Amino acid sequence: MTQLGLPDAIQACLFDLDGVVTKTAVVHAAAWKEMFDRFLSDFDGERGRPFDAVAEYDEYVDGRPRADGVRAFLDSRGIHLPEGTPDDPPQARTVHGLGNRKNVLLLEKIRAGGVEAYEGTLRYLEAVRAEGLRTAIVSSSANCRDVLRAVGAEHFFDVRIDGVVAAERHLPGKPHPDTFLAAAHDLGVEPSRAAVFEDALAGMDAGRTGGFGYVVGVDRVGQADALYAHGATLVVKDLAELGGRQ
């Protein structure tokens, strides 16, 4: 193992954004809850039960592209909506309309409270770069670049595969491994020589099925067992635990 806590064969590190680099996972969960709770208020019984911003967020929407998250959650409640199009207005009662409504709420919350980065991750990124490893940010968020710029972290990454790039290249989102595989490809590294850093269960699934050399689960919410079950090689509470410059 290297001083970065990684196998010697690892040549590149692929980082998720929300919950790994930045503290936006809580803001995302709050935006999903506000959007879904307003929508669910029109339903009775179990289908109208408020959205659980921990359990249901983790299971159905965390780490997935917006529309995929909407579909997965609505399917769990037996609710079916027209698909719509990515350009649907936020008030549209379609899958894409709900996703766009969530994004409006997210941007409002980010602008109101700002964005913070995890200091342990920033220090680890500095150490990774100092050791000459290649780096990529891999996120389902279409706001990835803006968030990185907000915390002054854009310069840490050689490659960015986010929601915008995934749409342009028609890459399916997590739990499929395609976005991570695209990042490794763009870095010129075989998946077996790349490490994935993720906090979402969908991200663990992507790391496992993509054949990556090392999959680090970042446990911010007390779900270590679930991260291991979904494919983590190692689980830490903060990347500072892996070593590097402290």
UniProtKB/TrEMBL annotation:
<comment type="similarity">
    <text>Belongs to the HAD-like hydrolase superfamily. CbbY/CbbZ/Gph/YieH family.</text>
</comment>
<protein>
    <recommendedName>
        <fullName>Beta-phosphoglucomutase</fullName>
        <ecNumber>5.4.2.6</ecNumber>
    </recommendedName>
</protein>
<dbReference type="InterPro" id="IPR006439">
    <property type="entry name" value="HAD-SF_hydro_IA"/>
</dbReference>
<keyword id="KW-0378">Hydrolase</keyword>
<dbReference type="GO" id="GO:0046872">
    <property type="term" value="F:metal ion binding"/>
</dbReference>
<keyword id="KW-0460">Magnesium</keyword>
<keyword id="KW-0413">Isomerase</keyword>
<keyword id="KW-0119">Carbohydrate metabolism</keyword>
<dbReference type="GO" id="GO:0008801">
    <property type="term" value="F:beta-phosphoglucomutase activity"/>
</dbReference>
<keyword id="KW-0597">Phosphoprotein</keyword>
<dbReference type="InterPro" id="IPR023214">
    <property type="entry name" value="HAD_sf"/>
</dbReference>
<dbReference type="Pfam" id="PF00702">
    <property type="entry name" value="Hydrolase"/>
</dbReference>
<dbReference type="InterPro" id="IPR036412">
    <property type="entry name" value="HAD-like_sf"/>
</dbReference>
<dbReference type="GO" id="GO:0016787">
    <property type="term" value="F:hydrolase activity"/>
</dbReference>
<keyword id="KW-0479">Metal-binding</keyword>
<dbReference type="InterPro" id="IPR010976">
    <property type="entry name" value="B-phosphoglucomutase_hydrolase"/>
</dbReference>
<dbReference type="InterPro" id="IPR023198">
    <property type="entry name" value="PGP-like_dom2"/>
</dbReference>
<dbReference type="InterPro" id="IPR051600">
    <property type="entry name" value="Beta-PGM-like"/>
</dbReference>
